[in-house]
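agent: user wants the full assembly modeled, not chains individually. Plan: 1) parse entity lines 2) check alphabet per entity 3) run joint structure prediction 4) return tokens. Steps 1-2 passed, four entities, 748 residues total. Proceeding.
--- entities ---
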Amino acid sequence: MRTTTKVLPEDARAHHRSMVLQRLFHGGPSSRADLARATGLTRVTVSDLVTTLVDEGLVTELGPSPTGRVGKPATLVALRTRDHQLLAVDLTDDLVLLGAVLDLEGEIVARRSVPSDGRTGEALVDAVADLCRELVTVATRPVLGIGVASPGVVDEHGTVLQAPNRGWADVPLAQLLSAELGLPVHVANDADAACLAELTYGGANGDGLLVLTVGQGVGAGIVLDGTLVRGTRHAAGEIGHVTALDERDSRDDAPLGLPQRCACGRTGCLETVLAVPALRDRAAGDPEALAAVGRRLGIVLAPVVSALNLAEVVLSGPPELLDGPLRLAARSTLRNRTMPVISEDLQLRMTALGEDGALRGAAVLVLSGQLGVT
Amino acid sequence: MRTTTKVLPEDARAHHRSMVLQRLFHGGPSSRADLARATGLTRVTVSDLVTTLVDEGLVTELGPSPTGRVGKPATLVALRTRDHQLLAVDLTDDLVLLGAVLDLEGEIVARRSVPSDGRTGEALVDAVADLCRELVTVATRPVLGIGVASPGVVDEHGTVLQAPNRGWADVPLAQLLSAELGLPVHVANDADAACLAELTYGGANGDGLLVLTVGQGVGAGIVLDGTLVRGTRHAAGEIGHVTALDERDSRDDAPLGLPQRCACGRTGCLETVLAVPALRDRAAGDPEALAAVGRRLGIVLAPVVSALNLAEVVLSGPPELLDGPLRLAARSTLRNRTMPVISEDLQLRMTALGEDGALRGAAVLVLSGQLGVT
DNA sequence: TTAGTTAGGTAACCATCCTTACAATTGGCG
DNA sequence: CGCCAATTGTAAGGATGGTTACCTAACTAA
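--- prediction returned ---
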């Protein structure tokens, strides 16, 4: 049975508040009347909400708008995007913890990073906390909260259920950091974060988006109906260990060679052909081999794209490896192996966010957690 | 940008009403105090809601409950499941339109069917309307609404965007039938309906469920987080035309022979090996061939199961074909090609609803549309 | 018989939104 | 030049729906 939860008036209020913020965030400065039209609320209600938002310091009046029409000129109100900041941490990399201070536009104001020096477990948590503390001192405006993109399986409360490479199992990271720093903390899987970043800053289609992150490993974040898919055990997107190459495949896709043993103990996982180390070792610079990897990727993605009727698949990772024969082969394989209704509207493209996908996504966690902005 | 919609107090009321009905539907007769505890609402609010539900005739007081504990004995209230009926129509079959009258328990009270006689387009709409009219006369209790399970791509308003075999394109079926019969009408894709039936009557896990319907064609319905996945173009679940067999596959999986031409114009689609006609022609009674089909199915499902971290995959179709070597081969292939975290908790089973999946699902459309019960 | 517990109802209050009415300000038109 | 229509933002009053606090009824355990 589906368990829903009761709706209090204050929940409705919070929801409407988010709608107003959302509109200001994406639509830029607007008059109260504009906001009323956009949200469906009355001008009265919007005025009231705006008043509280101004009192909270999140929104400010800009003054009368250049009037083109008849009637009383509107006074624009705007989100004070430069007057608040948030902290983002990206733990994707094995060797270094990346941190940044961003403003509400998503502009990176400052970066800090520390080598991870092989730390794991509690020591790594401490290192993350130290990095956050440093970021707090670097911030020049009030900090709304902290977002963390972590590898591994993360639940909706920000507990890292498992991240073997980090020595983490059931680590309540959000709770620990929040207690340590006295700020709201939101933690999510790195691929999920990259997916949110694509949605918020990359202009992606929230009706059906899959972001494939290619790095040390291969992961995916999926957004349907504007929300992340989490999965029964919070392991949605763990697509790196689907078999993508078995013995018979390798006979025809010769450039790939035989299926390789994967770190997970099995053989022929997608990671063994598509992760960055595998690509560098066995395909970099060889268009044929890159195309062969692309074909394997297309074959793996075809059922997912069809089942979900996705609008976009976005690749995040080194462009010199991904954005060429690999991507093109994946795309044509995808087209060849799905019906037109599915492939017609499908985009398969590179991210426009470069290396900062997960980091920007960590920022989005805060925006969405604290302001309800997506 | 995600567009959300405003929440009025009356929406909250409707939501709470649904929560109470939901609880009564799944939990059976309960006291008002039970309902309050289950929903998180106050006893006052629940009492008020129950009063209106009694006035509407949906709920009735059963009298004092057999008291086991101290305190005033509770008076049970119950959904009047036998005193209301709903109509369900299943258009999946090429040759016959299936209809039924059900009560709110999901018990089928009466069945009616008419041969489709090759009708398509408007004539078919008329035939469906006629069938509904007959069902209305057969019903012995007030009818809450009509649910229709149709093949093809159906949008959220019950418009059939395309159903080539029925000669339908952009047919606002729900609207037409509703105008004709004066009752609320809900239309959904047949596989989606089967999926909802599995959720409501089959006790399936709404956190990650895929129902694969195998008949004339192959389709899938997917429920994540308790809601159907619809897809950008409402074509989610159209998995029958993913390539499942190419030239090189057939060399090893000899029992399947060469990839066959599919009705969609392409070659080697999942339907060409898994649809009932294909199974009957080329695999029925041959365990090796059935297992080979199961392996192809497992290969196609592995990426979907991994990407979504599904809890259950349910097969709906002729058990003599599906529930044997085919299912077992699919299951072991699925296990072999996904990582343990994914496959560990995954069930791959037959439906418990037999042939009536889509029909029962059509009934669920009404339950959920009119009462908010899932 | 009395104390304690549970169910269910009533009254007063609070939050939120809506509708209606109005002041302020502008452009266009006679 | 002055009036009207359009538009914005605010104020007052009403409707809805929830909460807390308190009351009575009916039962069990001592």
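agent: reporting back. The two ends of chain B are 29 Å apart (CA to CA). Chain B has three domains: 9-79, 85-196+357-371, 203-351.
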